[in-house]
Design a protein that fits this description.
With 207 residues, this protein is mostly helical. It contains eleven helices and no strands. Helices cover 72% and strands 0% of the residues. InterPro entries: Rab-GAP_TBC_sf.
């Protein structure tokens, strides 16, 4: 399955920083599907302890989105001695499915080094970093969210009222049909009773 250009940046970063490591990954048939995509889709929860995970995301949330790619590449680069010493590709893949022994600060240090020396297409970086990161001190003002919720709530209320109105009209029509049917049945029974009564009278007075 082809990876997006953004995820492929991880491979480029690893290759630029350590061609030897990339050659080992290629020869072991360990691809982005193993050393990049699972890390990012799990938000690094599989390989970091709870405390290290919180530390990592303090930095990831305060940096441009491209820093996520740098952190992912840095994780693999910090595993270089272990990867080069591995005897099978399975041993390498296991490293990306269990909690790591790597100090998170070492990974962050390497990630910042990669960020400073990052040589990626400018257009791709602009697209990645178009999202404004959180401010260094404090949080942004989320003033648009309540308005959106109010609008959404109003729209839902209007839809609900329209649905209720339609249901009421439908129920009223159903009740009318039932009453009309009962009225017809009642009249039919009365006619039948009158016919029987007339027949009895005719039989009584018949000479």
């Amino acid at each position: 399955v082809a990876m997006s250009p953004a995820v492929c940046v991880v491979e480029q970063l690893v290759c630029d920083a350590s061609p030897r490591l990339m050659a080992r990954l290629v020869s072991s048939r360990v691809t982005l599907h193993t050393y990049a995509w699972p890390l990012m889709t799990s938000a690094f929860a599989q390989v970091l302890s709870a405390e290290d995970w919180l530390t990592a995301w303090d930095h990831l949330l305060c940096e441009p989105p491209s820093f996520l790619l740098c952190f992912s590449a840095a994780y693999t680069l910090c595993l270089q001695p272990t990867i080069l010493a591995a005897q099978t590709s399975r041993q390498i893949k296991v490293l990306y499915g269990q909690e790591s022994f790597l100090p998170v600060r070492s990974i962050l240090k390497k990630a910042y080094e990669l960020q400073e020396s990052m040589q990626v297409e400018e257009q791709l970086l602009q697209r990645l970093d178009s999202i404004t990161p959180l401010p260094k001190r404090g949080l942004p003002v989320f003033d648009a969210i309540p308005d959106m919720k109010v609008v959404e709530s109003d729209e839902l209320e209007q839809q609900r009222e329209a649905a209720c109105s339609w249901m009421m009209d439908d129920e009223i029509e159903q009740v009318r049909r039932e009453l009309y049917k009962k009225e017809e049945d009642c009249l039919s029974n009365m006619r039948s009773i009158r016919r029987k009564h007339l027949q009895q009278l005719q039989q009584q007075y018949q000479p």
